[in-house]
Amino acid sequence: MQKQSKLRKVPTAAVIDIGSNELRLHIAQLQIDPESGQEGVKYLESLHYPLSLGRDTFHAGKMRFDKVDKACEVIKNFLFAAKGYGVRNVRTVANTAAREATNIDYILDQIKIKTGVTVEVMDDYEEKRHIYKLLMHYADDSLKQSALMVYIGTGNIGVCLLENGRMPRTWNIPVGSLRMEEMFGERQAYTRSFHRLLEEYLAGFNQQVASEIPEGVSHFIVSGQEIDLIARLTGVDVTNTPLFALPREHLMELFENIKRKTPERIAAEYNLPIDQADELLPVACIYQNLLSLTRAQTLTASRMLPCDGVLFDMLHPLRFPAMEKRMVRSTELSVRRLAERFHSDIAHGKHVRDFALAIFDKLKRLHGLGTRDRLLLASAAMLHELGEYVNNHDHHLHSYNIVRGSDIVGLNAAEVEIVALICRYHSHLAPGEGDPHYHTLTREEKVRVSKLVALLKLADALDRGYAQKFAKVDTKLSEGVLTITVNTQADTELEQWAFDEKGQFFEEVFGLKAQLRVRKI
């Protein structure tokens, strides 16, 4: 009783994770290292129940209801275990297997009815975001200067470049340990050259990443549920620290030992369950291929999963804004690199961004949008002309497609879609005109997109000739009129025409007339 009372004095939380291969429960309490002051979590209990939901999703596209019934039993037992620790703060999350199941809405409804639990289905961007933030938090400064950071999920791989403490580039590769095993599993059972099939399949992704990273990346940071197994099989002493070292030669030796063996032989030689043996070779192959892009002699490894990031946020809510601020800086750098990759006019983008943010800040009380919307507007301002790389004709449509198909650090799928839509409508189109993607948005999302589009249209008009005639703008809101004043010696007839034309949509959205006042100097 004394121990339980003591535990309640320290903030505790729990996460139930509905994974592709198993259900997990993590119960933890807040922890701060007395010497370094580093914030972390202390795990009180970690429970696992094997249940291969992902195999059904990747193979048949649906989750089986009999397995969902079993999952509900496990969830109720997990809730009982959390209650035994006095934990009331419990969140339930799900990842790839749930996200890609075509019957997910019915599944979530059944879980809610049978357990009372509302499941948060993380999209792929959110999964990676949690991992990247955690690894950035625990990694020391030397690691952050030059590293390739990799998270292998069951369905997708996240790869991120670390450069001078920031993340300028990410790649989302639509393969993973379980997905690859489901795709090629039958061949693995009877061919000794299965590893070559895997390597050839991964070659295209490797080449894409290799073409965009600087030479001589110093470190290789990995995270995923299989890294613990690899560490044990290679004789590495895995401690309770968030990060541990795995020598490069140990991984290479393991890969050489298993690459020509069937899952049954791997299971027998290493005393593994067959499902772990099935996934071991694909994972080792992925690591070996990506590791070859760096000069790292040691893998910096972590067993942390997205659910650990959720748990960290629950226990350290005050730390979250600082981590988010660091992620925002990486988002800005990622957007800049994307613009450079498509040879966009950076000077034009920066001017339009600065003008758009000045108008955004002036209308803050009127538009009711938040800091996240401000970031999306700034991103769209830098990227709205990407389509000119393809063709100047209908470049706004090309911009939409490029942005929509890009990985932007720190933005989830819904946010990337919003940025893409803002780019689509920055020119002469108005939101909703012949675009089925716009009509799939909720009413609130449509209004949000329209507000951001209206602001970008005005800002873009102020540099219509790409000549940067104005160094800055002064904005004033008075009696239903937004007045934007600029100082210049240049001729402004083009900008005035564009401003009057694009101001019509601004007036339609906000009910305000926008006028451009030019002060000659």
Write up this protein.
This protein is α/β, with parallel strands linked by helices and 521 residues long. 53% of the residues lie in helices and 18% in strands. It is built from 23 helices and 14 strands. It has helices at residues 2-9, 53-60, 65-84, 96-99, 104-115, 124-138, 141-145, 177-188, 194-210, 227-233, 248-258, 263-270, 274-291, 306-315, 319-341, 346-362, 364-367, 371-383, 395-404, 413-424, 436-439, 443-461, 493-510, and strands spanning 12-18, 22-32, 39-50, 90-94, 119-121, 146-152, 157-163, 166-173, 219-223, 244-247, 298-302, 474-478, 481-488, 513-520. The protein has a six-stranded mixed beta sheet, sandwiched between helices. A five-stranded mixed beta sheet has the order 3-2-1-4-5, sandwiched between helices. Helix 3 (65-84) packs across helix 5, helix 15 (319-341) packs parallel to helix 18 and helix 16 (346-362) runs antiparallel to helix 18 (371-383). It starts with a helix and ends with a strand.
Strand content: 15-25%
Shape: globular
Which segments are poorly predicted (pLDDT under 50) over 5 or more consecutive residues?
1-8
Mean of all residue-level pLDDT scores: 87
Helix content: 40-55%
What is the rounded distance between the termini? 78 Å
Question: Structural class given helices, strands, pairing?
Answer: alpha/beta
**Over the alpha carbons, how many angstroms does the gyration radius reach?**
26 Å
Largest sheet, spatial ordering of strands: 8-7-6-9-11-10
| Main sheet: strands, sense, barrel | 6 strands, mixed
Q: How many E strands?
A: 14
Note the total helix count: 23
